[in-house]
Amino acid sequence: MNAYLKRIWSNRNYRIALLILVIALAWLASGQRPGSSGEAETESQVRGITAVKARYITAEDYAPTVKVRARTEAARRVELRAETAGRLIASPLAEGQLVKQGDVLCELATDDRPLRVIEARSAAEQAQLEYDASQKLRLGGHQSQTALAAAKSRLDAAKANLASRELDLANTRIRAPFAGVVERLDLKVGGYMERGGLCAVLLDLDPILFSGQVSESEVGHLREGQNAKAQLLDGAEIAAKLRFIGREAGNATRTFRVEAVAPNPDYAIRSGLTVEMLLPLVSQRAHSIPSSLLALDDAGKIGVRTLDASQRVEFRHVQLLGDSPNGVWVLGLPEKTLLITVGQEYVSNGSTVEVSLQDSEPSASQGGQ
Fold first, then answer.
1. In this protein, which residues make up the domain named CusB-like beta-barrel (predicted)?
2. Which of 40, 253, 271, 288 has its CA at 20 to 30 Å from residue 20's CA atom?
């Protein structure tokens, strides 16, 4: 036997293994000593009370912002079309040029229209004389009421014909209905324009519109007249006002149209640009908490675990509002709440716990991490 033990001891691997075994037994024995830290740490568990960490959180003013993918639009866009036919003899303005209300954009040949106006005016004057004479004869009892009515009918027809001829002459000049910019001229000088033919496209870019769509969960928080902001792709920011909120959702997207408006006196902002519109909602009191503290109850509703004055666990339902620098903003907690931050997964609603208070974190408004 001694020879066998000597042979084992002479093997280096056996000696190392024996040394490791002795060290492991000594370490295990040290953990079982009375008054050790292990027993101290489980003292609350022996008493049937779970130890948790918690800190007080206080509500802050939170104004969430709705981000809307939008585009710029002209306040007014019209296609100016001819109301009479004729040859284009003048186009005083060029594409991209600013115009004032009443400026001529397209001028058609008048041809014999001025002569027709003269003819119609003479006919109207003659009809007026005949009607005046009929009235005098009627007063003298020398003409019937029927004859007077016929003279009045001829006078009215002559006046209507004159007005029609004057309007046809005036329509040879197509004028700008409002101040704006000429976006397109459709016909060159010398071309023939049919009745209803396109003369020009006129845009009114002051003010400029920002148009987008918002979801049905967001539209109820918006109000007409509230402040808005539009961010262009080049980084420029434009202050605007929300002027329109749609009342009917689109059949395909179930979203509502919204429009914001901003001054654009120099027409620097073009129509059709892609922008991001920021719409701040009404400010409300909310709490900023780490998203890792959110949990679900048996019904699948989201909430957090808090402590009451008796250090009993409560599960409080919350509503998510948005992201914060510290996690998420939630609604539904008291103004000042003792929130369980460590050990919340080991406690249940109504249980009593042993609390270790933590220092409060910086508020989200202070940029806490």
1. 213-278
2. 40
